[in-house]
Amino acid sequence: MFAFIQSYPLLIGISLIALDLLLWQMIPVERRAWRIGLRLGVFLLFTGVLISAGISPLQPAPWADDVARNLLATVLGISWWLFAARTITVVIGVVLVARSSHTGRLLQDVLGAVIFLVAIVAAAAYVLQLPVKGLLATSGVMAIVIGLALQSTLSDVFSGIVLNTTRPYQIGDSISIDGTEGKVIDIDWRATRLLTGNGSLAVIPNSVAAKAKLLNFSQPNDIHGVSITVVVPAKVRPRRVLDALEKTLQGTRLLLATPKPKVTIKSSSLESVEYEASGFVSSMSQKSEVRNQMFDLAHRHLEATGVVWNADTPSSLGWSRQRALLEDVRIFRSLSSDEKDNLSQRMTSVEYLADQVILGVGDSSDYLLVIGTGVVSASIRDGDKLIEAGRMGPGEVLAAEGLLDDEQSIAEFRSLTSCLLYRIDKDNVRSCLEERHEVKTALTKLQRVRLQTNQSLLEQKPAAIKKGGFLSWLHKS
């Protein structure tokens, strides 16, 4: 065996390198330990073959008189240095990937390049006996020239190393770099690539990203800020606006209780005042839905307090608050203007303090209730406990059960804030059902959606009607 190795070291060395490449491709990426172990084992065998054949990678070939044998030893010595560089690079790469996943790729590539450069210089010095000092001096001059020519590119490369080391963001994060918002899809040698909200690709050089103002919307991963700004005419008393926006935050169920949502005045002028309502959600995917809901609720609560944006308002049309509410109740939208006028005159108001039960589970009411101001919580029964399923605001209705059948309330409705509700006698609503088939159709659909959503919530399954769950039928009212 020893004589065979001495006679055919090149053949055995090439066979070991080929075996290493074959096993590396065959073993799955998930089995990192196997891949590293086999590569180290093949490298040690390769080293043993060289030593057995009398070849040392730290010395030039000893057979100067035998040209063929000397060339063979030189090739194997250089191969040993490259094989060693590749093995070390793989080990470092696996460690970096295990610790930092995809973000360690750039650092792995840079370290790999440095290790191979060192291996080439070492092979030139030990195996080929080249004048390394002169080579390094020449390389230094060339490096300066190349560095000046590629100054911008090198800045991107080293900035990329800093970004991957400090990790202010990583693949999959939603970030903003100097106002450019998007999802990080790749970080390479030169740039960070973002997929923007309109589906376009933004390529930002790493040197720019390293110096720019950076916002990472995905960190921390369990809390994400969401806010809206509302501009109101300066003549409106701030306390009215602040109360309306606070009710907006209370009516948005997906907002976290801690940190506590808040309303602040951002700026003011002689013409207008800018307000901001902000809070936090637990998932990045909820931000758009919650922001849209906050805008809708803010408009409704502000309108309920009498805030006027333009001349075309209910007050300018001579409408009462009851009449204006009927414009927002979908089940009555098919009524004519005269019919709404007559119905609004039959609406009576009733006030509730905060944390009062308006309608309990299994209760029935002789009135259809329309929320004028405030926030109402809707909860359904799950065994012996109640689960909050949604929150309601101005323009939404409750106690619709009993209009089409003898059903009783399937939910408990409780006031979260002080509320003003308007009652409509169900006999008046039934007369609308007889005269307007569209009203009956809308009520039937509302009842069906509520029942389906009730069952869906109890079974912890997504609602089959519309994304948004129990809250969907609240908006349909």
**Ranges with pLDDT <50 over ≥5 residues?**
461-477
Radius of gyration from the alpha-carbon trace, in angstroms: 37 Å
Tell me the strand order in the biggest sheet.
4-3-2-1-5
Report helical residue fraction: 40-55%
CATH architecture of the largest domain: Sandwich
CA distance, first residue to last residue? 89 Å
Count of DSSP-assigned helices: 15
| Total individual domains | 4
Largest sheet: 5 strands, antiparallel
Strand content: 15-25%
CATH first level of the largest domain: Mainly Beta
CATH topology of the largest domain: Jelly Rolls
The rough form would be described as elongated
| Helix vs. strand class | alpha+beta
Total number of β-strand segments? 16
Mean pLDDT: 79
At the fourth level of CATH, the homologous superfamily of the largest domain is Jelly Rolls
Structural features, described:
48% of the residues lie in helices and 20% in strands. It is α+β, with helices and mostly antiparallel strands and 477 residues long. The protein folds into four domains: 2-149, no CATH class; 166-216, SH3 type barrels; 224-304, Alpha-Beta Plaits (2-Layer Sandwich); 321-476, Jelly Rolls, CATH 2.60.120.10. Strand 7 and strand 8 form a beta hairpin. The radius of gyration is 37 Å and the shape is elongated. The model is unreliable at 461-477 (pLDDT under 50).
